[in-house]
Specification:
Layout: H1 4-7, H2 9-17, H3 19-30, H4 46-49, H5 53-56, H6 60-70, H7 72-87, H8 93-114, H9 120-149
Helix pairs in contact: 2-3, 2-9, 3-6, 3-7, 3-9, 6-7, 7-9, 8-9
Length: 164
């Protein structure tokens, strides 16, 4: 994960600001651009997502955008799971340590905030760490997809043809 931000610097920078765009494009690639195969969070969180099944049918594209924008953490971890399963890859020990450290920092910040001992500096640190880790994850996904499929994921045409 550490090297991914250097091999995919544009993806990393974009993902620091707007992780939803790459989360969406990675999911589309993992679905082979077939939205009829889309399931909310790929049914990874079935206790919650099973309630969405009726709404998803016929609205797959909209639901993917909602997942990527409103729940980008779940979308990125779901993409990670799909990539690992499809390409038979695993987290490195370093990746696991980074993810555990991020969880620890988030829990510590939450406990300190609830106890009235939290600080703005710690919260800013945790927010920055969170953005960096998810940006590195998206970069790692991009590199793995390019390596395995020879495909560069495309950014959605958000503005359409307005500027032309």
């Amino acid at each position: 994960m550490i090297n991914a931000c250097f091999t995919q610097p544009i993806t990393c920078a974009l993902s620091c600001l707007l992780p939803c765009f790459k989360a969406r494009s990675h999911r589309l690639t993992m679905l082979d651009n077939d939205l009829s195969r889309y399931k909310c969070c790929n049914n990874r969180y079935q206790c919650i997502t099973r309630h969405c099944d009726g709404c998803v049918q016929g609205n797959e594209g909209c639901c993917l955008w909602l997942e990527a924008c409103c729940c980008h953490e779940c979308a990125i971890y779901t993409n990670r799971s799909m990539i690992m399963q499809r390409f038979n890859v695993r987290d490195s020990a370093c990746d696991a340590c980074i993810q555990i450290f991020l969880c620890f920092c988030q829990i510590l910040n939450c406990v300190l905030q609830c106890s009235g001992n939290g600080s703005d500096e710690l919260e800013t640190f945790v927010d920055g760490l969170y953005c960096a880790v998810y940006a590195c994850m998206n970069s790692q996904h991009e590199a793995e997809i390019e390596h395995r499929l020879g495909v560069t994921t495309k950014e959605p045409d958000v503005m359409g043809r307005m500027g032309r």
